[in-house]
UniProtKB/TrEMBL annotation:
InterPro entries on file: Blinkin, Knl1_RWD_C
Gene: Knl1_0
Residues spanning the signal sequence: none
Protein's GO biological process: attachment of spindle microtubules to kinetochore; protein localization to kinetochore
Gene source species: Loxia curvirostra
Protein's UniProt name: KNL1 protein
Assigned GO CC terms: nucleus
CDD domains: DRWD-C_Knl1 (cd22892), DRWD-N_Knl1 (cd22817)
Residue ranges annotated for the Knl1 C-terminal RWD domain, each copy included: 18-144
């Protein structure tokens, strides 16, 4: 009887361990999905800290000032921050247009925040600043991947051309089945994909214009992979055949 009781307890322990392992796996998946740690620490000295973002194409240099009395950060006396300087190392001559767009949007965000030293006067504010930048870098990086996907596979969705100019993306759709050819221009910003994109439509052939595209886009919610979902929705709803 004692043995069977021990076996039952062992089984319960094993079941509990499996449950914990399963919970751990689920938590790790969530952490992986929402991991916005896009920075890499390159240097940390008495004078400064240097962080790299986006495959070393953006660098943040944080210059430290004197210690802050009675405040500690990571078990050391906290420091005041004299300046936060961002620099781009992207070779715009060599980089693909999607990378240039991503870089522009990241710096659009950086400039929109005003004086970073006021936002981050002491070391204890730095983790939040790194998180805020990482969040935008992460979104913009995914946008770059979406643009590359559309440039490579756009033909599957009757997308003839994906043209990137400054922070605008022009999508040229053409369908002989739907007897339609039109250009959709989307204005991107660093808020992507949390806000619906302003757009305009130029009709070349057929009767698909601003009204028809607006009706389709109004049903595409903002969020992850908005651009890809918008293209797929236009393809499914407007380009499959006569309307």
């Amino acid at each position: 009887r004692e043995l069977s009781q021990m076996d039952a307890e062992d089984e319960l322990d094993l079941a509990e361990m499996e449950k914990l392992k399963s919970t751990e796996r689920a938590c790790l998946e969530i952490l992986k999905k929402y991991d916005f740690t896009e920075w890499e620490l390159m240097e940390w000295s008495e004078q400064q800290a240097v962080f790299n973002f986006l495959y070393d194409s953006v660098t943040l240099t944080v210059v430290f000032g004197p210690p802050v009395d009675d405040e500690f950060f990571a078990a050391r006396p906290s420091r005041s921050i004299m300046s936060l300087d961002f620099e781009s190392f992207l070779d715009e001559e060599q980089a693909p247009p999607s990378s240039c767009l991503v870089q522009k949007l990241i710096f659009q965000f950086i400039e929109s925040q005003g004086c970073w030293q006021k936002k981050c006067p002491k070391l204890c504010y730095l983790p939040q600043a790194l998180f805020d930048i990482s969040l935008v870098v992460n979104r913009c990086k995914i946008l770059g991947e979406e643009l590359e996907f559309l440039q490579r596979w756009g033909a599957k969705f009757q997308l003839l051309e994906t043209d990137i100019k400054d922070t605008e993306v022009k999508l040229l759709f053409s369908s002989s089945v739907a007897f339609a050819k039109f250009e959709l221009t989307l204005a991107l910003s660093h808020d992507y994909p949390s806000a619906v994109l302003p757009f305009r439509v130029q009709t070349h052939i057929g009767d698909i214009g601003e009204k028809e595209v607006a009706a389709v886009l109004s049903r595409v919610p903002a969020g992850h992979h908005y651009l890809q979902r918008a293209v797929i929705s236009i393809h499914q709803n407007l380009l499959q055949g006569p309307r």
